[in-house]
Amino acid sequence: MSKNVVIIGTQWGDEGKGKVVDLITDKVSSVVRFQGGHNAGHTLVIDGKKTVLHLIPSGILRDNVECLIGHGVVLSMSAMIKELGELDAAGVDAKSRLKISPGCPLIMPYHVALDNAREIKRGKAAIGTTGNGIGPAYEDKVARRGLRVGDLLDEVAFAEKLKDVMEYHNFALTNYYGVDAVDYEATLTEALEQAKIVIPMITDVTEKIHQHIKNNENILFEGAQGALLDIDQGTYPFVTSSNTTSGGAVTGSGVGVTDIDYVVGIVKAYTTRVGGGPFPTELIYDVSIDEGDQIGKILGTIGHEFGATTGRQRRCGWLDMVTLKRSFNLNSVTGICLTKLDVLDSLESIKICIAYDLNGTQITTPPFDAQGYADAQPIYIEMPGWKTSTIGTKSFDSLPIEAQNYIRKIESLSGLPVDILSTGPDRDETLILNHPFDEA
Ligand code: GDP
Ligand code: IMO
Ligand code: MG
Predict the structure, then answer these.
(1) Which pLDDT score is estimated for 291?
(2) Looking at residue 355, what is its pLDDT?
(3) Least confident stretch, 69-78, 93-102, 278-287, 358-367
(4) Is pLDDT at 290 greater than 80 in this prediction?
(5) Residue whose CA is closest, atom 17 of ligand 1?
(6) Which residue, of 95, 340, 362, 370, has the greatest Cβ tally within 10 A?
(7) Is 309 in the pocket of ligand 1 (CB under 6 A)?
(8) Which of 1, 5, 4 is nearest to 337 (CA)?
(9) What are residue 420's DSSP bridge partners?
């Protein structure tokens, strides 16, 4: 029996989704992206060679895997062409295996201008977006004024629609935000040029998916961002503009709800966040102080916690079971993939947040929005560290007992099995205890 597996991040992104998607595509015929855009940065390391993908599904390095971009993804043609060029330079022929849904909203230059103008206007309350125009492109989709990939097929109609939408956005850019308008003619010329590369890849992705299902072929759905950045369920307004939870795989690709067999929840062994917003277990550290014992700094340094898309330093902190348990429920997580365990290798002791103190009351469910987190103080349990390298561990039993206990604790607190354990960035530095595509 074939299976359809969804991989999602359970925290605020950068859990290691790209690495795991690449790893388990050894058993699939196709990988589908279903939301987000080039705000994502998914890092793959194979035999020491690093590839960072933003828009192209993380199955692209496996020659026989088809890569599908579902209509839930907002597509920047310039970002896509740049990424295709990088892959081409690395000897990967991506074009022939990449298929794009005509329903993908296009991210255009005025979306980028709007994203940046808004962030500047927000000042201290800025969300810390990637500046890639993601939010404005989704807004146009919901407002039913957006241009989609399928619109590229009719140049005349495209030019007309573009004129209308640009008139609207340029009005806001100049009159409300007080910045320069985006030039219509230049935007049109560039888009039509880029379309020549994109048009041959347009495919009915939903139909493809259902053909694969009919043919009994395994499909992997690759999430971007993390559940706590979900537009509806995340730490609003410090979220991205798509549904990053596993339900997004259904709405963003056209697969049916009951066609999903397994949801892998990727959990980083600690927590990181890029940009603004609440983060109760954050370990704030002072970069200017050269003290080796600042734990946030240790996590950030050993874990190389710098954004794969913007290069920004990621905020680091302890594992938070309060938000994680909500994530597991939201996503119907079947099994956990625990990543970056090795980053904790040098620590004396390790904390897990199991509840929040909210003005004297202990709560175990996450607040409704960012505001609700303002006074949430983490309540921790503490476990001894193992102070031994776990990099590239090849069996569970060979892990130090303290590391085994940490993993078992996560399992008992969540009620879910750790099916995959990652102890290094390389594809090989992974221990698969239960392959999501194997028969139960
Ligand atoms: P994604 O957005 O979820 O795909 O994650 P990113 O690629 O943005 O960030 C994860 C980072 O951690 C990348 O630099 C990976 O190469 C790296 N990484 C993934 N798994 C592990 C692991 O188990 N150990 C270590 N040390 N690094 C890892
Ligand atoms: P991957 O797929 C981490 C964050 C941004 C910002 C917020 C909104 O690599 O895990 P946006 O540009 O989406 O409007 O920004 O979301 N963000 C991410 N953080 N990993 C990502 O992707 C992210 N994509 C967006 O930093 O706080
Ligand atoms: Mg990332």
Answers:
(1) 66
(2) 98
(3) 278-287
(4) no
(5) 425
(6) 340
(7) no
(8) 5
(9) 337, 432
Mean pLDDT, rounded, of the chain: 96
Catalytic residue among 38, 42, 71, 111: 42
Q: Nearest to residue 343, comparing CAs of 380, 379, 318?
A: 318
**Beta-carbon neighbour count of residue 409 at 10 Å?**
17
Is 14 among the residues known to form the active site?
yes
Residues near 196 by beta carbon (within 8 Å), at least 6 away in sequence: none
SS3 44: strand
Mean pLDDT of 157-162: 98
Active site residue 204: no
Are the C-beta atoms of residues 174 and 197 closer than 8 Å to each other? Answer: no
The DSSP secondary-structure symbol of 434 reads: S
Q: With a 6 A CB cut-off, is 133 part of the ligand 1 pocket? A: no
- Of 50, 69, 67, 54, residue with least CA distance to 13: 54
Q: Over 70: is that where the pLDDT of 292 sits?
A: no
- pLDDT score at 439: 84
Q: Is 126 exposed, middle or buried (0-12, 13-18, 19+ CB in 10 A)?
A: middle
- Alpha helices, DSSP H only, in 177-230? 184-198, 205-214
Query: Is residue 293's pLDDT more than 90?
Result: no
Per the CB < 8 A criterion, the answer to whether 263 and 6 are in contact is yes
**Looking at the predicted structure, is the pLDDT value of residue 268 above 70?**
yes
Ligand 2 neighbours (beta carbon < 6 A): 9, 12-14, 39-42, 127-130, 132, 134-135, 224-226, 229, 240-241, 274-275, 308
State residue 268 phi and psi, 5-degree precision.
Answer: -75, 145
Burial class from Cβ neighbours inside 10 Å (0-12, 13-18, 19+) for residue 345 reads middle
Going by C-alpha positions, the residue among 424, 425, 432 that lies closest to residue 342 is 424
